Amino acid sequence: MTAATAERVSTRPEATNATAGTGTLLRLILRRDRVRIPLWVGGIAFVQIAGASSYPELLPTLNDRLAHASVMTANPAMKAMTGPGHGLDGDPSLGALMATEYLGFMAVFAALMTVLLVVRHTRAEEETGRAELVRASIVGRHAHLTAAVIAAALASVALGLVVAVGHASLGIESIDWPGSLTYGGALAAVGLVFTGVAAVTSQISEYGRAASGMAGALIGLAYGLRAIGDVGDNALIWLSPIGWAQASAPYVDNNWWPLVLSAVVALVVVAVAYALASRRDFGAGLRRPRPGSATGSALLGTPMGLALRLQRSGLIWWAVGLFIAAFAMGATADALDAYSDNELLQRILESIGGATLTESFLAMMIALIAIVCAVFSVLATLRLRREETSGTGELALATAVSRTHWAFTHVLIALLGGTMLLVVSGAGVGLSAAAVTGENSLIAQSLAASLAYAPALWVTAGLAVAVFGVVPRATGLAWALVVYAFLVVYIGGLLQLPQWALDLSPYTHIPTLPVDDFSVLPVVILTLVAAVLVGAGLVGFRRRDLEAT
Amino acid sequence: MTSAISVSGLVKRYGRTVALDGLDLEVGTGEVHGFLGPNGAGKTTTIRILLGLLRADSGTATVLGRDPWRDAVPLHRRLAYVPGDVSLWPNLTGGEIIDLLGRLRGGINPRRRAELLERFDLDPTKKGRTYSKGNRQKVALIAALASDVELLLLDEPTAGLDPLMEVVFQDVIRQIKAEGRTVLLSSHILAQVEKLCDKVSIIRLGKVVQSGSLLELRHLTRTTVEADTARPATGLAGLPGVHNVETTDHRVRFAVDGEHLDGAIRALSEYGIRSLVSQPPTLEEIMLRHYGDELRDNGVTVGAEASR
Q: What interface predicted TM-score (ipTM) does this complex get?
């Protein structure tokens, strides 16, 4: 009998055991993230539902809705930022307007949520060595991956449901149950696809940071593809999971088949992740590690050299990614001709100082990309916190390097690296726009417009430095400004925020070149504010205890 | 003898937890000083204050004649540190990290670096993330030992090293001692401390409970004496400082406090000593003396009491 049992066990297919312990791990994830997941789901749902609830007041009459809809369809910059604008011809309903303005933007956050969740519970667990401890018990090879994928899928579905129920309960006539379910389904579908994407990138790199970075870049790519597709009204949107979500046209057509497509793609991508996971060793990436240099180069022997070495590859990837994105954005200037005979747009352009359609479109795109550049600066600054808590900061600070010097090297990379990214993306927009329109002056114009945002970027990075130096446990505060700046550019006008609320974002104070005239005063003031914030952070860091584990 | 490290009344609190509660410590120049105590006693906190990474809430600390908080940078040129739990930059190789830390400290002795790499048998071409715990420890050790500094602060430096490497480590520390440099060695490996250290400080709940040379510490603890005597030694039990007397015919065994050893042996000689074995307390016994109550709370019967 013993022999028979043994035989049965040995003939069992391997895969049956590869997911052993998934249930326990899933409970572990839900326990560890019992605050984090509800915060993500609740935060996204709150902004979404609160946004939707404001529409009847913002656009009370048919004329308001008509005017609003024509801005969304007539202005290519708005189209690039928001979406295709289903149901905005004729009598646009509040539901259609809301879906156009919110869905793409909120989908980005749904994707971010699942990416961070999956990486946190797969690759990051392996990287820290915790997964090794767990895997040594009765836990299968694919249990971590399976549990993380299920958790992220649950979070996506929960987000969809909360948003659907929340919308339908608002009691707004055009925001009905079928549309709300489609809308929630669209958000969930984006979350599901990026659950799979993060599952794949977690197999590729040995580092959790790189895995979320890669997946984050793909979110950006998805947004960019649909933006270019929407402006040019072409098939590029079908390469983007966010494009599929918007193709479901909630509150207008309530198409479920693009969402089914998302679900199928999500399943395929997850299957790819499993295949990759089976091919690699525990803790390893897909690339085999190679031996490196046995001695440190002369450059590495200084704090600046160390900081550069640590941030170099990140900066290069950001530069490459932003250049491609900016170049693609600039290339859409080609498609603007289709909008040029729109009367409303001509009036808008006249009202903002008589810039050409191309100029104002590019200015808007550059304003958005400039905020993305600040994401790098905040990340580069918060690297200090990672060095501090991981223990490598202690190693460096026990040598003859002052805290101020050590911290300033990373701050410098955040400030100068961010500025470099502004130049790179300005060049990207300008070069492609000039190539497609033949107006070479656009190159210099775009460069200047992009570089003008440098002081706002410095303020954003400065806040991160101050947070690190003074309240290091609240690094989330550094991100709040970036998200807020996005919200202001994206929907600040729509929400009719008061001027002081707009002024809280440093980006509001930068003249939108070439549409506005350049003025020196805000640049000087913002630079001073940035200097004060950086100074406060460095002084605060000098005075506090180092927090190593 | 001048002091390399001089600490008095050091207090460090984390919220309600008191990590250091009036800690005093003196480490003379050129001495290898053992710093003993269980996990959580405050050893690492003390060392981090000596490095200026943490600021004490009160009390004073002087390292090589300077204030470690204010003069951290000039001080760090003259000292090297090995943490107990070394984390390395994952994408830098061991060799790069050794050179980096050496240069940030103001220079590295290339001949010594090569020699130490050889002796500790470390492959410097591997990336930080691929090293095992012992090898990460070696990277930090080599970086510290290869620089010509006056003071070494070592926080459980050999945790994770194999016994062969432990021998190499002890040899290198002896060499450093011979060069007249100072070492503060926090350790759990009592045999290592007994072999290397001139002086020892025992820390408990954020305070140094005992400090001195091993000889002095031994004097404060009971010595075990075993003797064969011509006549049965019957009258020892009543003597001051004598404990746990066991007499079987001509054989006697007892423990005696250091200060009463002389009187006890004098009394013993009355019975005609034929053979005498005296065992000085081990460092373990000295340690246990200070932690006996804690062990009892954990359900362990301690040392001399076991025979009671």
A: 0.81
